[in-house]
């Protein structure tokens, strides 16, 4: 029990009573205080044995965690401000708030973007403000990420730990591909960069915790600090004596929350005031939803933050959607896990068992009540493809040892935003005409587009089907056009798979018959005495 002169009410009235055991000239121990202060509104004090400042702890049972205008979470952000220690995330206390002097290569992980770092794709476009990272900025960020990724190889741990590391690496690569390949607004680029920095910092501290701090914590030597205190580390709040002792031993800043009734045996050398953080409070301009509401000591807070990163940033490859993240509790937490078996494909491959032993894989035509059926000639072309990846061109197999490969993120073409935002641009009219022609229910209306594709395919550096080189000065009948259409479709789908390793997006039938009187573009017609025949101008030259 406290003496009468050390009651909570008297301590609040005279905080200097905290110094009743002060001995600044004596070396510190884990449970003595270099600095101490009273926690507002509670019969508790906060004591730190090794830090030079006193951060205000984030406290609350129903706190709202949301992204701020600087794409961080303010005092609720474990990368920026000390949080309550949670057993599942012991490594979060090892995060560096600023880049170290001797590690300038990691500077891009600690700095936000300016408008200088953003380059518009086309400053003459109707839709303004669409662009990407400046190439030099991207290369610096990529180089910093690679330096951290390379350090992963030095970690020894359980399969769960290694899986957690690799899933961080996978997510980083997806984020970098998004920054490299997906034009978007400046605000979205800033968000993607901030999330890339977040995952990279977590991976960096993940590695440092496993290779530096955890081995020192478990070493059998004395509890004296094994290295100078590093004030660039975020640190953590804790009321667990074991945690305080372990953090003190490896010089991680730690703040011990102590009930006033236990003050009698605690030494505090100096009083301190809470440091007020200079964080942005305005919400993110993208109007993002609240990430988490609840106790800041709840591990679900960090699950929700990583959920946001995963679900908002992963989708560079639209055919590689993955399941939500899962968690584990071995050694240190795992974060994002991605399993290849859960990936989605629009035209799935048949398993080898459905064809018999030794038979090649093939695509199947996916069926769904909300999905219009494929145009028949294109459906047959899809089913005719032999999906043997060993036959694919080297460009379809991007690996570190294959510099000629087409990067996966460049295997998808994003439409110019002008096409979506306007009604009468030339590009939109061209796409509308092509879609109209390829899917028209009348073969005579499809014929010009079939021959246009035939002409393009003749320029491809490959062995063409015989029909693509065929010339008929007497014209083409309906049956001949239909056979040509099948040859064009099959050749296109097969070539696409061989060069990209997956099926293309294929035309689907219209849900209605188009008007026979309407044509989206003017075309010159030649009248002949023979009905049911289509003449290609090139055949007459």
- What is the total domain count? 2
Structural class: alpha+beta
Number of strands: 11
Q: How would a textbook summarize the main sheet?
A: 5 strands, mixed
Task: Classify the beta-strand content into a percent band.
Answer: 5-15%
Mean pLDDT: 79
Q: Can you write the helix and strand succession as a string?
A: HEEEEEEHHHEHEEHHHHHEHEH
**Order of the strands making up the biggest sheet:** 1-2-8-7-4
Number of helices: 12
- Tell the overall outline: elongated
Q: Which bin fits the share of residues in helices? A: 25-40%
The first-to-last residue Cα distance is 108 Å
Task: From the alpha carbons, calculate the radius of gyration and give it in angstroms.
Answer: 32 Å
Uncertain residue segments? 314-344, 352-359
What's this, in brief?
The chain is an alpha+beta fold. The protein is built from 12 helices and 11 strands. It has a 5-stranded mixed sheet with strand order 1-2-8-7-4, covered by helices on one side. Strands 3-9 form a two-stranded antiparallel sheet.
């Amino acid at each position: 029990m406290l003496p009468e002169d050390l009651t909570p009410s008297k301590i609040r009235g005279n905080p200097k009573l905290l110094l009743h055991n002060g001995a600044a000239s004596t070396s510190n121990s884990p449970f003595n205080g270099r600095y101490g202060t009273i926690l507002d509104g509670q019969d508790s004090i906060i004591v730190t044995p090794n830090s030079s400042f006193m951060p205000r702890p984030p406290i609350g049972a129903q706190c709202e965690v949301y992204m701020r205008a600087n794409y961080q979470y303010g005092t609720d952000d474990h990368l920026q401000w000390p949080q309550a220690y949670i057993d599942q995330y012991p490594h979060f206390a090892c995060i560096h708030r600023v880049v170290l002097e001797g590690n300038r290569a990691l500077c891009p992980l600690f700095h936000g973007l300016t408008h200088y770092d953003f380059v518009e794709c086309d400053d003459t476009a109707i839709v303004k403000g669409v662009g990407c990272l400046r190439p030099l900025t991207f290369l610096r960020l990529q180089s910093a990420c690679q330096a951290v990724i390379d350090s992963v190889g030095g970690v020894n741990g359980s399969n769960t730990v290694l899986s957690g590391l690799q899933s961080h690496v996978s997510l980083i690569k997806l984020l970098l591909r998004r920054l490299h390949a997906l034009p978007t607004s400046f605000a979205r680029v800033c968000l993607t960069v901030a999330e890339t920095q977040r995952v990279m910092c977590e991976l960096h501290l993940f590695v440092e915790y496993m290779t530096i701090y955890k081995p020192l914590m478990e070493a059998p030597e004395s509890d004296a600090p094994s290295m100078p205190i590093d004030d660039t580390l975020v640190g953590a709040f804790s009321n667990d004596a074991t945690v305080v002792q372990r953090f003190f031993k490896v010089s991680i800043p730690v703040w011990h929350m102590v009930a006033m009734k236990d003050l009698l045996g605690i030494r505090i050398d100096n009083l301190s005031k809470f440091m007020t953080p200079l964080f942005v409070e305005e919400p993110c301009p993208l109007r993002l939803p609240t990430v988490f509401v609840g106790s800041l000591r709840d591990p679900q807070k960090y699950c929700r933050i990583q959920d946001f990163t995963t679900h908002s940033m992963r989708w560079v490859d639209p055919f590689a959607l993955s399941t939500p993240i899962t968690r584990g509790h071995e050694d240190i937490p795992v974060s994002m896990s991605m399993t290849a078996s859960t990936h989605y494909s629009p035209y799935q491959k048949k398993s080898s068992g459905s064809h018999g032993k030794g038979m090649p894989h093939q695509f199947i035509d996916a069926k769904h009540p909300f999905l219009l059926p494929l145009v028949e000639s294109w459906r047959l072309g899809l089913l005719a493809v032999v999906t043997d990846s060993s036959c694919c061109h080297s460009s379809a197999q991007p690996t570190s040892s294959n510099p000629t490969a087409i990067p996966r993120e460049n295997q998808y073409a994003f439409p110019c935003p002008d096409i979506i935002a306007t009604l009468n641009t030339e590009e939109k009219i061209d796409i509308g005409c092509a879609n109209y022609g390829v899917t028209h229910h009348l073969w005579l209306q499809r014929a010009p587009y079939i021959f246009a594709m035939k002409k393009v395919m003749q320029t491809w550096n490959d062995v063409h089907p015989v029909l693509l080189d065929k010339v008929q000065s007497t014209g083409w009948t309906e049956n001949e056009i239909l056979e040509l259409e099948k040859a064009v479709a099959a050749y296109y789908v097969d070539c696409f798979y061989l060069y990209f390793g997956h099926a293309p997006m294929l035309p689907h039938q219209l849900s209605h018959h188009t008007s026979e009187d309407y044509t989206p573009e003017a075309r010159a017609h030649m009248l002949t005495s023979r009905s049911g025949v289509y003449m290609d101008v090139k055949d007459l030259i």
